[in-house]
Design goal:
The protein has 125 residues and is mainly beta. It is built from no helices and nine strands. The N and C termini lie far apart (38 Å).
């Protein structure tokens, strides 16, 4: 569904989540270290980048009422902070993180409106 109201068009922006794999890809059984998080805004999308060290096993899904994007990262240590991210002019209201079970991490993005999410895994050079 396309939004014709230009003043609200950024609410339907894409949220890209790029997971950068560190040069030090370790055993698949080792925990993933999430070392930092970056945010980049464009007119038609917002990119949230997790810089990690280790292999990654993740699952992303959306929830409504209120609108949220949930990122579950298996066997991980979250060492980053969201405090430095400027969320203004993005579809993201807030971001929170918590341990899920003994070893997993859950990141929740509270959203202003429905968004489409896309993920990609990138290998650093």
């Amino acid at each position: 569904m396309k939004n014709t109201n230009k003043s609200q068009s950024w609410f339907l922006a894409y949220i890209y989540i790029a997971i950068l794999l560190g040069c030090w890809v370790t055993s698949a059984f080792a925990a993933t270290d999430i070392n930092s998080v970056r945010l980049w805004r464009a007119p038609d999308h917002t990119r949230l980048v997790f810089d990690i060290e280790g292999s990654i096993d993740h699952h992303i899904f959306s929830l409504d009422n209120p609108r949220r994007l949930v990122i579950d990262i298996a066997d991980s240590h979250f060492r980053a902070s969201f405090d430095h991210l400027d969320l203004s002019n993005t579809p993201i209201v807030s971001i929170r993180v918590a341990k899920r079970g003994k070893a997993d991490t859950r990141v929740v993005l509270d959203l202003k409106a429905r968004s489409e999410e896309h993920t990609s895994e990138l290998q650093s050079p």
